[in-house]
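[Discussion] Sanity-checking designs against the backbone

I'm trying to build intuition for which residues belong where. Below is a structure token string of 406 positions. I'd appreciate it if someone posts a full sequence so I can compare it with mine line by line.
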């Protein structure tokens, strides 16, 4: 494959795309297919497909052990896991959350008629800024949900302090943070409960899936019952519950995925280091860093583009890459507060979210995971470097309307 050197080599301006097939962010890690199929066959032989089956129980036990938490309840996805944790923890009224997150964090509240109150983020960590939480508290506030974005832990101690002072519950959306730790303590042990997602795009996946982990006995009991319609025994219901159960095929995939955890981490880490190395010194861009002192899943390669020094905006760089079949993603653009119903309910909330507004214009996620080779990463970095080096010309052509991309 020929190297790209001039702006006209870029696919956006007529050159051949660097990749024949689209390169997606979040292509699933698969693990050992024969182990998965053996489990599925066994499950079919035993005719036990769902309802707290053997694999679900094993998956829960392995997660609890890995995290070092007392309880794990596996469920059908991360969104339901959030809804269950929120309901069982008794949150109501208003709950403080970042806007810079996947919309499920806010929807899990709104779905239960709890108002998400959006708090700004710390630009250094991309996580909720604990110094800005206190001024969002009103008499209706019952809790805080922090999100460990990209697997980087929130300011857990500072959030805990604010929560104690105002008698609030703290939960964490740890959808990105399975397998990560903070000062030697695994994510899953902070706040009253933490929630994981095992969606196909996540580090460990069960096709669709999620889990709630907690060290509170009563809370765990309540969540477990609520996951199964609120049944406390045959013919006996004691809570408004839902159907949050994880099925056995998902658990089989989750267990298989867990067996490859170390391999996934090392491939992700290798990819992340390669991106960082190959993009070091390119003006105006940086790759978000992970703390070497802690465990990390390296599932996200997060590029920040400063348009004033990069020469292109994040969106222009995205257009360059998309034309090459590199389908980078603008997570979490434009921020929950600019999505419905939040945008209509609180049209001016952006005024209190300057860092969210700024960062959501700058972030671009790059493809990584076991489906992305070192050669592919080299080519992606080459395209980024060329696009930015030739920034003024690329911009001129783009703004001249010569080429565009959906
Ligand atoms: C931060 C965050 N929270 C919640 C979710 C919801 O998880 P799920 O897709 O498993 O419902 C996701 C991802 O999908 C996420 O990225």
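Best answer:
Here's mine. Compare freely.
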């Amino acid at each position: 494959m020929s190297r790209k050197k001039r702006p006209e080599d870029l696919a956006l301006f007529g050159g051949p795309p660097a990749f024949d097939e689209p390169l997606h962010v979040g292509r699933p890690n698969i693990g050992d297919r024969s182990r998965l199929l053996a489990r599925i066959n066994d499950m079919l032989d035993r005719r036990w497909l769902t309802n707290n089956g053997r694999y679900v129980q094993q998956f829960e036990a392995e997660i609890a052990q890995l995290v070092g938490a007392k309880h794990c309840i596996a469920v059908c996805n991360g969104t339901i896991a959030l809804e269950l944790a929120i309901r069982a923890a008794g949150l109501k009224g208003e709950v403080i959350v970042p806007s810079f997150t996947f919309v499920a964090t806010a929807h899990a509240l709104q779905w239960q008629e709890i108002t998400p109150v959006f708090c700004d983020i710390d630009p250094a960590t991309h996580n909720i800024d604990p110094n800005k939480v206190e001024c969002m508290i009103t008499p209706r506030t019952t809790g805080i949900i922090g999100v460990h974005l990209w697997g980087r832990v929130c300011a857990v101690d500072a959030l805990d302090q604010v929560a104690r002072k105002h008698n609030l519950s703290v939960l964490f959306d740890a959808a990105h943070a399975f397998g990560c730790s903070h000062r030697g303590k695994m994510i899953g042990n902070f706040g009253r409960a933490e929630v994981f997602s095992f969606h196909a795009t996540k580090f460990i996946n069960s096709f669709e899936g999620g889990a709630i982990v907690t060290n509170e006995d009563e809370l765990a009991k309540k969540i477990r019952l609520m996951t199964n319609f609120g049944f406390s025994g045959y013919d006996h219901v004691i809570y408004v519950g839902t159907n949050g159960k994880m099925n056995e095929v998902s658990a089989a995939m989750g267990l298989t995925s867990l067996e490859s955890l170390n391999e996934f981490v090392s491939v992700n880490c290798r990819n992340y280091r390669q991106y960082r190395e190959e993009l070091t010194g390119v003006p105006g861009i940086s790759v978000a860093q992970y703390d070497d002192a802690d465990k990390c899943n390296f599932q996200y390669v997060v590029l920040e583009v400063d348009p004033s020094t990069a020469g292109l905006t994040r969106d222009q760089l995205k257009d360059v890459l998309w034309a090459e079949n590199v389908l980078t993603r603008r997570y979490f653009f434009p921020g929950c507060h600019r999505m419905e119903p939040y945008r209509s309910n609180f049209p001016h909330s952006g005024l209190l979210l300057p860092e969210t507004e700024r960062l959501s214009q700058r972030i671009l996620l790059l493809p990584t995971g076991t489906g992305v080779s070192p050669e592919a990463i080299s080519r992606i970095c080459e395209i980024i470097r060329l696009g930015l080096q030739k920034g003024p010309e690329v911009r001129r052509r783009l703004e001249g309307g010569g080429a565009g991309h959906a």
